[in-house]
Amino acid sequence: IFSLWAVSLRKYGGLSYSTKNVGQVLAISGFNLLFSQLTLYPYVERIIGPIIITRIAGVLSITLLTSYTYIAMLSGFSLALFINCASVMKNVLSVSIITRLFLLQNRAVEQHQRGAANGLVMTVVSLTKTAGPAVRGA
């Protein structure tokens, strides 16, 4: 969705980015995501705890996503800076939530039920990812 928003024309609320610009933002975001998951996440989880991380990340994600409308009003260096920072933050927060929910789900059931529970969860996630854009578009 980010790529579609970024390449859309400004008159439609997009950023009028080229595919090269989108690739640069996604590359920076991906590198920072890898770095944060390997170094920062385990340390923060030990200090704050798994459930509080998920709650904080959820609240920050909602706040961040509502700011995208205002980011589209920027231009030049400030746009590049804010869009890169927002993309990094969004990915780190999303992956933190997903990682924590998978770990909590695995610990919620006994060993012999984990396969069935994981299958059910993955089915629901797939259905949500399939139906979400269609519902949002409608």
UniProtKB/TrEMBL annotation:
Membrane-spanning ranges: 25-44, 56-73
Q: Taxonomically, which superkingdom? A: Eukaryota
What's an example GO cellular component term for this entry?
A: membrane
Topology in membrane: Multi-pass membrane protein
Key word Transport present in the record? yes
Q: Which UniProt keywords apply?
A: Membrane, Transmembrane, Transmembrane helix, Transport
Q: Where in the cell is it found?
A: Membrane
The question of whether Ubl conjugation is a record keyword is answered with: no
Where's it mainly located?
A: membrane
Question: Which named protein is this?
Answer: Major facilitator superfamily (MFS) profile domain-containing protein
Q: Give the species.
A: Citrus sinensis
